[in-house]
UniProtKB/TrEMBL annotation:
This is Uncharacterized protein. It comes from Vibrio qingdaonensis. It comes from the Bacteria.
Length: 78
């Protein structure tokens, strides 16, 4: 799944899931959704991006937020 595709189905996702992203950090980046392991590790070849509940809260407060702004948030504000 691509990061930009995740946004389309965000309201239906379990808020306990964590989003992991490949190294590109763009709307076209591949992502994985899974529960964060107890040891806090990331899946191989992926980096932590955000928890789903954080992204859901961002959309509640700013419904017109762009994928690029979400990336900026994850990089610098999270």
């Amino acid at each position: 799944m691509k990061l930009k595709e995740l946004i389309l189905d965000l309201e239906n996702l379990d808020p306990e899931l964590t989003i992991y992203i490949d190294g590109a950090w763009s709307p076209e980046s591949n992502i994985l959704l899974c529960f964060e392991p107890e040891d806090g590790s990331s899946p191989k070849e992926y980096e932590y991006f955000l928890e789903v509940f954080i992204l859901q809260e961002l959309f509640e407060s700013t419904p017109d937020i762009t994928v690029e702004r979400i990336i900026q948030y994850a990089l610098y504000d999270a």
